[in-house]
Amino acid sequence: MSSILQSLLDPKKSWLASLHMKTLTNRLRNYGLRYDDLYDPYYDLDIKEALNRLPREIVDARNQRLKRAIDLSMKHEYLPEDLQKMQTPFRSYLQDMLALVKREREEREALGALPLYQRTIP
Amino acid sequence: MANKQLLSLARRSHKPPSSFTVVRSSSSAAEEFIKPPPPTAMIYDRIAHSLKSKLQKLEKPDIRFLKYGSPHPTQSSHTHILSLPETKITTLPNGLRVATESTSNSRTATVGLWIDAGSRFESDETNGTAHFLERMIFKGTEKRRSEEEIENMGGHLNGYTCREETAYYAKVMGNGVLKAVDILADMLQNSKLEEGCISRERDAILREVQAGEHTEEAVFDHLHSTAFQYSPLGRSIHGAVANIKTISTEHLHHYIHTHYTTPRMVLAASGAVKHDQIVEKANKLFTKLSSDSTTAKEPATFTGSEVRIINDYVPLAKFAIAFEATSSTDPDSIALMVMREMLGSWNKNAGGGKHMGSELAQRVSINGIAESMMAFSTNYKDTGLFGVYAVAKPDCLGDLSFAIMSAITKLAYRVSEDDVIRARNQLKSSLMLHTDGTSPVAEDIGRQLLTYGRRIPIAELFARIDAVDPSTIKRVANRYFYDRDIAISAIGPIKELPDYNWFRRRTYWNRY
Question: Domain Peptidase M16 C-terminal, which positions (chain B) (predicted)?
Answer without folding.
Answer: 247-427
